């Protein structure tokens, strides 16, 4: 492999979580429902049915493009992508070809040095139906569920700037994070709402020519599987090149159980799809003010939030990265900071943003069960516990042991369960502010 280098581009499909589908009023919440119960003449491609674009889906596509530093052309249109497959009832997919909503973007990753991955386009299309393989009346067959047909689908296409499976995984995880921060998709790969497709080629080092082929591995639903599939493809293609042959340009699948890719079909070129403008949907023309309004709706994204956490709260880059990995955790942390600031006005508590961060990171606080207010109150109690004077604690323990001589004798006689009684008496004397683990150790030491 030392004589070769991989050339990798990525195509990522993301289902948007709009209430309705891309071109009709059917519910887009199809997952887990009975097959073919979320369909209408439009998403089934019946004659005479006309598509109407989902405005929210288009706006979310543009917002994602803006978050990925794309240019937003003021003119865009939909196109028909023609191909025949059982899950495509119309015989074509409404997509975008030469005039997509977003172009020429970029996203920075660390691997460990900073590197910008260029994004060729972010465009809008409709999802297809889903094939289900099973047995009916004792015979193997393939059924089609059209519930997914017509769900809004955004496709993100990178330039072939990625040089390793590690870089691909880092890019995809960061893209996933941005999508979740925007709130436009759950990006749940187990449900198929985010599907990953690497395009892999290999060339000799120092060869500047673009390889004459590329292999696309379709519909992968895990970051780790993408890494494994890319590594397998690189090794497989190098072996072919070393024999003096050229790998086939094809689409392949990934078999996780066997750890291999397998051939599915020859890979089409753009002209094979016979793209032409969608005649039932007029072109979309933007004005600058509308683009600015969409840009203003974008929340603070992970990179900016991480830098702010470091600057404002004095966190290390490591801690800030953990806290900003998920938007919900970052918001929980900042809500905890606000509650701390309210409490500190009325109480002498030694809590810092760093201490709150440590509790969330190291104690793995369940943010769905413990509110930020409860967390800060708990930390405050623990801080007060730490500040209890040791002489006061020793004095209370002495008094409890002196007043409960029978319990002391029982413990020394082997009835160790009375330790919990003594512990409870000490905690009562401390008004519940004591550290139970510390007091237990002190009692055991004194009783011995």
Describe the overall structure.
The N and C termini lie far apart (67 Å). Helices cover 38% and strands 21% of the residues. The longest helix is centred in the middle third of the chain and has 20 residues, at 223-242. The strands form four sheets. An eight-stranded mixed sheet has the order 5-6-9-1-10-11-12-13. The chain is elongated. The mean pLDDT is 90. It is built from 13 helices and 15 strands. It is an alpha+beta fold and 448 residues long. It has three domains: 4-296, no CATH class; 302-386; 390-447, Arc Repressor Mutant, subunit A, CATH 1.10.10.410. It has helices at residues 55-67, 165-182, 223-242, 288-296, 302-313, 317-324, 327-344, 353-362, 372-386, 390-403, 405-412, 418-429, 436-447; strands at residues 4-15, 75-76, 79-82, 92-95, 102-110, 114-126, 130-136, 139-145, 152-158, 194-204, 215-217, 250-255, 260-266, 276-277, 284-285.
